[in-house]
Predict the structure.
Amino acid sequence: MRGYRWAILLLALLSAGLLTGASLAILDTADQVTIQCEVLAGTPEAADGVELTLPLSCGNQMFWTTTFPAGWPEEAETDFTSTLSQDPRTKTWVGQPLSVEVADVYYWGGTPDNPHALLDSLIQQAQETTPEGTEATVSFRIRDYFDTWPLRVTSDLPGIQYDLWGNSNLQQLFQDYFAIPVSSDAMFTVTVQGSGASYDTGCIPKLKSYAAPCGDTILFVLTNTASISARDETGNYQKIALDGSAIPGGWGLYRYTPGPEDTLGTLETLWSLPEGADILDFWGAEDEADFFLLTREEGQLRLRVFDGEGNLGQTMDLLPFSEEESYMQTYKGDGFLVPMIYGPRAEGYCYHFAVLHKAGGMWQTAFTGDDRKAAQLGCGGFTWTDDTYSCLAMAWDGERLAVWDSELRNGSLFHLAVYSRDGLDYLATYQNSVSQASDNSAGPVYYAFTQLFWLETPQVRWAETGS
């Protein structure tokens, strides 16, 4: 009850704007956070060695950091701190070393003075050919304006200059090297209605790039298949294969070396992709010793490991990977990797994953698994790691994988799963007294008082190994 009393006082102070040093002194029980656990699978002993840290904040002014053994939450200890000024504690944003995509139609043929020059011209042509007071759709063949898809190249690294209109040195360098032909049937349509007009960009491919710094250079790949917003007969977005025949060496692994100021720099192909392979993901290790490429090939999720010079060191098949399944993401831990794929709706979107770790200087598959049992118990799936507010955290002890996750960003409810070669060893959900006391979900207006904040300390770790 004492915890609920200070929580009610806290909410009153916040709503009245009376959060002062004197009021904080009243909260003498603020560090007494309790954790409630419901075990859904396994026993607490199956989570032995797993330590959890729950970081909660209120108004970016009050912070509770509660640490406890996963199987024995009654041993929770909380560190409480506060500040009179707001202190948003979020993970530092890390920019992209390089991004290559098909330019937005807004900037096709544009200039700094008139960035929408071509778009404005096409809309005007459509309006001029449509009788006043009528509605019509006018189609334009993109090949009449561009032989290759216009690219937009950006970088968050200092010293690399670019602009949105495609007339920078960097932009031109990539446009010449990656000349991806526009298909003959690609059309741009403008619909005229009264005095207004709308347009459809459904045929424009969503080209993606993945890049990693390597010394003074950048290693990167481009996806050789792309989605378009036009839908197929089943309602899914269509995928199209892009033509890389004009790229030196074709699709593969590339290196960009920035040049001195006001120079182009250089592009080169380090490794060529085998025919029939689809690029899914690429990244580098923090120490820049290993670079990883994931592809779909021959019905497999395949991993290749390169060094910084583009030399291929390892090739591994991780999981069976049918055309009906989709790649989701890879969790990149300290000395381990967890690639994830998920199945079609007909199979309940079951997630499959592989756990990889490095031993003896080589990457090895420890085991593979799926979330089917966890999903049956209401805790299936994984949240996205590239979301700023992602709750997904994993830890590996050499034999077992611990997974913390939640669809809620306020920290009120999360679950922990422990997997091994034998499958799901442990699954439990956790709630806490801070979030429960400040819950306002009953309304009349919903707002969350607590939220997770970022800590350098991982939210899940193996206490025995410190991983």
